[in-house]
Amino acid sequence: MKHYIYDLLIENGFTQSAAKYLNMLALLVALLIVAFIIDFITKRILWRVSSGIAKRTKTDFDDILITNKLPRNVAHIIPLIILIEFVPQVFSDFPFVESIIEKTLKVVAILLALRILRSILLSVKDYLKTLPKYKDKPIYSYIQVFMIFMWLLAIFSIFAIITGISFWEFVTSLGAVSAIIILVFRDSILGFVASIQVTVNDMVRIGDWITFEKYGADGDVIEITLATVKVQNWDKTITTIPTYALISDSFKNWRGMSNSGGRRIKRSVIIKASTIKFLTDKDIERFKKIELVSEYLNTRSNEISKHNIQLNIDKSVLINGRNLTNFGVFRKYLQTYIETHSAIKKDMTLMVRQLEQTPQGIPLEIYAFSSDQRWQNYEYIMGDIFDHVLASVKYFDLEVYELSMDLASN
Length: 410
Fold this sequence. Notes:
Blueprint: H1 2-11, H2 16-56, H3 61-67, H4 70-75, H5 77-90, H6 95-129, H7 139-163, H8 167-172, H9 178-184, H10 186-200, E1 209-212, E2 217-224, E3 228-233, E4 238-242, H11 245-248, E5 252-253, H12 255-260, E6 263-271, H13 281-287, H14 291-310, H15 326-339, E7 351-354, E8 362-370, H16 375-392, H17 405-409
Antiparallel strand pairs: 1-2, 1-5, 2-3, 3-4, 6-8, 7-8
Pfam families: MS_channel_2nd
Keywords: Cell inner membrane, Cell membrane, Membrane, Stress response, Transmembrane, Transmembrane helix
GO molecular function, one term: mechanosensitive monoatomic ion channel activity
C-alpha cells in the first residue's frame, strides 16, 4: 500500500519530495479512518456484550462497570494498538516525526491505562457502598491514595519516554527534588495518614453526626476523601473539613448517642430560694391531692411522724425534727412524672437533681433520655416536659426565678 501510492505519484509526474509528503498524508488519513471505524465498532460490540451479560447476571457489579464507562475505555485499546503498529510505516520517510508520534502514542497508552484503572476502582467503590459492611467506610480516600501513586508512576514513565532515558534512571535522579515532591503532596500525605488513623480507630464513619466548632460544622458526614471530609449541616449547607483535622483538633461525634437509642435531655429551672419552706400538716394534706406524690406523702409523712414521736421532738416549732419541704416534694413529683412519661427511655439514666445554689436561686435539673432521637421530635418532647414543669411549680408554693425589669435596668 505504501509503495503503491508512492509509485503512483511518481508515475504521474510528482517529485520524490512531494510524493513522500503526499504518500505520508494519504497513509495517515487512511490509518486514522481505519482506527476510527474500528474504535466505533469495538465500542458498539463491547457495549452490547457487556449490557447483555449485565442483564442476565444477578450481581450489580457488572452494571456498575458499565455506568463507570469501563467497556468504552477498554474499546480504545485495539485502535491504539493499530496506531502504534502502523505509525512506523506511515512515517518511515520522516524519522523525526515518527519518533514524536510514537512517544505521543505511548503517553496516550499510559493515560488510557490510568483511565481504565480508575473506572475499575470507582466501580469497586460503588459496589462496596451497596454492602452494609462497607457503607460507612472511607473507601474513596484509599482509592485516591492508590491513584496518586499510579499517577506518580505514570508521570515518571511519561518523562522517561520524552527524555529517552530508562524509567529507573529517571526515578533515581529524583532524589534531589524529593523534598519538593513532599511539599507539593503535603496535604495528600497528611490526609492519607489521617484516613488510616480515622479508619483504624473508628473515629468517624459516613453517616455519623459530628460537631466541629472550629470549622462551623454540625451535621452528618456525607463523604470522606483523602483530603477532605464533607459534612452536611442541619441547614443543608455543606462544610468541608481537612481530613487531618480529625486527628489534630477536637470534635464531637454523636454516634454513641445514636447507638444508645436515646437522646439526652439536660435542662434545669431555677427556683427562688425564698419560696422554699417546711410543710405543715395542712400543706401535706393539700399536696396529697396531687396523684403522683400522694402515695409518697402518705408513706413519708408517717415515717417522719414516728421518728419525731420516738425522739419526743417539740413540733410547736416547725424547724425541729425531721420535716418535708415543698422543694423536696416537688423534686419527687418531677422524678415520678419523668419515670412515667411515655417518651422517656426508661433503661437509661433518669433523675431529677438539685444543683449548686446560684445568686439567682437553686437550679433543679432534669437529666433523662428521650426515646426519639429525631431533632424535631426531641425538641417537642423536651418542650412538652418543661411546659408541664413550669406550670406545676405554683402548685407546690414555689416560684421560678425571673429577672425583674427594675433589676435588669440597674
